[in-house]
Amino acid sequence: MKNTRNSKSKNDSTPLQVFATWSEDAIAGRRLDVKYWIPAIRELQKAIQHGKYESQKLGDFITDIRYGISTTNEYVDSGVPLLRILNLKNDGLDLSKIVYLPESRSDEIGKAVVHENDLLISRSGSVGIVIVVPKEVEGFAFGSFMIKFCLNDKINKQYVAAWLNGEASRKLIEREKIGAIQGNITIETIKNFDIPIPPISIQNEVVKKIQKAYEQRQRKKAEVENVLFSIDDFVFGELGIDIPKESPERVFQIWSDEIQTRLDPSYFRPIFKMLDKIFSTTKYNVKTLKNLSTKITSGSTPLSGGDAYTNQNDGIPFLRSGDINPDNEIDFDNLNFIKKEIHNKKLKSSQLEKGDLLIALIGATIGQVSVYNMDREANISQNLASVRLKDDVYPEYAKEFLLSKFGQMELDRIKRYAARANINLDEVGSLQVIYPSKDKQNEMVGKIRKIRAKATELRQEAESIVISAQKQVEQMILA
Question: Could you tell me which CATH class the domain 226-445 is placed in?
Fold first, then answer.
């Protein structure tokens, strides 16, 4: 049986990849998809199985393994804390966005809880992120997009996490994904992972090397945050904005005639009245996005199945909120593509044009802002708002204003904290923008770009520290 892959356009310099695999191999592996039989990945697997150290199946060390709870997004203010896929990061857990399930659902949660030194792996989305559970999340429930597994004492748990988070393992995990649209891995896949077993002294050395790299990365990330914070100082200084600190007081009074379309208390926090005062007293122009734009819209999900999607050469880029990266740029390398007929029939009204402002309405990137800068048609999901601006404001300036602390406070005000925090499309138009002359806007954007470029450089340096350590580990283990 011959398999051929050609995911590049005819103008791409990457050579066409053609390879053959015997049908009995495919049948034995029970996989017929091309990516499973890529020679380089098969060679990597052989290097692990026949490398410097003996390899074993991860399942040989697993004492318990289970999927997380599949539950509706009915969260409460306090109850059983729930870990979701967005909480898993390569260097540990991000506990800044923890939600809670009602205590009454304890029976439903059952054993889908974590304990110190358990391991969690993401099985969907960013597949293959592995963390060792720390003591502070003892007893937390965990969601269905994760798998928990417990290991015996014959292997260093931190070593397992370090190895699985490495580039070699990530390639093999990517190979094992199943599913047409959003691939995932299964419990059986995890049990069948081949993992090299060096002496415990080497395992400990690997852990120290990776943990040191994570610590160095965290320090570099702190530098990134300081650089990005300087953008606010610059913007506020240029616009003469002085944002007062919010009072810790959580009890405040509002008059009934102030309540119109919103009843949630967070909308009426005193700090927002102070922002309104700044808008009314600034020496610069102020308009809402509704008055600054010719069109504000969002898209939709074309189809629930895979029939709407196609490859890059035949399709239209389809942007989701998760396609906005940490630099608030579009991650064009990982876009989905929809069929042209779906785009033309169902989604034409939400077609993007170069210069459209994009605002994430829901999900992990809620409140992030970007500008679409491609010279080709594209479309957006229902989780993004597209704002087509008039000539008063440069899109890049509007983006930077909304990304500033001032703009983010505006976006925070219109968030609705229901089962899942979201921004109502109708309220996007109410966001106000303070803007000087276009010459001044252009000058400010130029300086901000330099600051962001520095932050990007530092972020890349931070990631390269861990990547370098992971490569050193692979050389130690596989050489």
Answer: alpha beta
The first and second tokens of residue 152, run together, are 């015996």
Residue percentage of the chain with pLDDT more than 70: 83
Q: Enter the CATH code of domain 56-197.
A: 3.90.220.20
The average confidence (pLDDT) of the chain is: 83
Q: In three state form, how does the secondary structure of 279-292 look?
A: HHHCCCEEEEHHHH
Ordered DSSP codes for 323-339: GB-TTSSB-GGG-EEEE
Residue 413 near residue 264, CB atoms below 8 Å? no
Give dist(CA 284, CA 282) in Å, integer: 5
Q: Which phi-psi region, left, alpha or beta, contains residue 128 (left: φ > 0; alpha: ψ -120 to 50)?
A: left
Taking 3-state DSSP, the helix, strand and coil percentages for the chain, each rounded to the nearest 5, stand at: 45, 20, 35
Integer Cα distance of 103 and 351 in angstroms: 44
3-state secondary structure at position 256: helix
Nearest to 370 by CA among 336, 343, 331: 331
Separation CA 418–CA 427 (nearest Å):
16
Q: What are the sequence ranges of the domains in the chain?
A: 56-197, 226-445
Q: What is the pLDDT of residue 284?
A: 96
DSSP state of 164: H
Contacts of 118 (CB under 8 A, 6+ apart): 132, 133, 148, 149, 150
Is residue 132 predicted with pLDDT exceeding 90?
Answer: yes
